[in-house]
Specification:
single chain, 381 residues, alpha/beta, Rossmann fold, five-stranded parallel sheet, 14 helices, 5 strands, 8% strand
Amino acid sequence: MVSAWTIVPGIIVSLIVLVVTKLWDPIAQVYGYPFDAERRVQKLVDEFSKLQDQLGELGILDPKPSSAVLSGWLQRAAGCKDKVEEIKRRHESVKSVGVQGLLPRINVVRHLCAIGRDADLELEKVKDLIAKGEGHLKEAGAAPHPIPIPIPLLPPPAAEFDNGQLAQSILDTAAAGTWGVGIQAMKPHLTSVLDFVREDGGGAPGVLGVWGMGGAGKTTLLKLARDPRVQTLDHIVLAEAGKCCDIAKLQDSIAQGTSLVLPPSLSVTNRATVLCNHLRNKEFLLLLDDLWNYIDLEAVGIPLPLGRGNQRKVVLTSRSEAVCVSMARQGVTIRMGCLDQQDAFKLFEDKVGSATINADTRIPELARQVMKYSLFYLFLV
């Protein structure tokens, strides 16, 4: 017969183990974040890929959401995608900074702790969306499916265009949008930019400076050059320098365009190092608008050399020819002047509206006086 004295110690030990385990689990969960952030982020990414599979299946079965509940689910899934991408970028950025020793160890731990916690919280949301997505898939699968509509052929890839044709295609797209046919006046300048951007080979320059007075259309030109058909690159980034260029803000703008998060606690020099390392093996086009003074691109974090066989190029705009020359050095500069009278009137008509101009016989002449007063710099109007 087993005595109570031999059973009691076993019960006590079991209770102690149970209590310690219950206490330790949440402690380990919290304090394990910095040391386990990578696994947590990867688990989130893996689980999110399942959610993406569901989105793809639903896109086929129910391309137009058939219920408000499904619409809400799709919106939450889209928001979840942005959050997952943000967590991934933060983790990659902190890892890069930590390896380079640019951030104090305690700050690295603090950032990793926050990333691990956010990854766990987002993981629960993803799992919940997946569980509800299974129900939506069953409903969509049981519903009658419409006859698929033939998809029109896409325009030919940019490689099949010469630069003049590509410029025309980009301008046609812009003209069909908010700009109207007056934007066609930009074709010579846009073609020049495309000649520069799409030129490759060992002798290709790396910097193009575009100069002209305010209102000549320099910013519009860069927006047109941002079209993804221009070149197949890792990144095409449009950033504004401005009159009092803040290097830190410029770095943030470039980093945002390349899916990189720069820790605000880093110095400008260390941020430049992180940005440079991020872009070193990438092909990119940097469109730098409204530059008033010379800036050292390398100090910003732009890897050199530009051009000369590297698919890394910069197009910048300035009101000053001297600034463009100092930035381009061995590169190229072009001047943007005013529009001719015919193109200026066409652009003016697009912006004001032909109905307004023709509403009174005096208006066309007044319009021409406005254009003459602005020296045909219609982007000022």
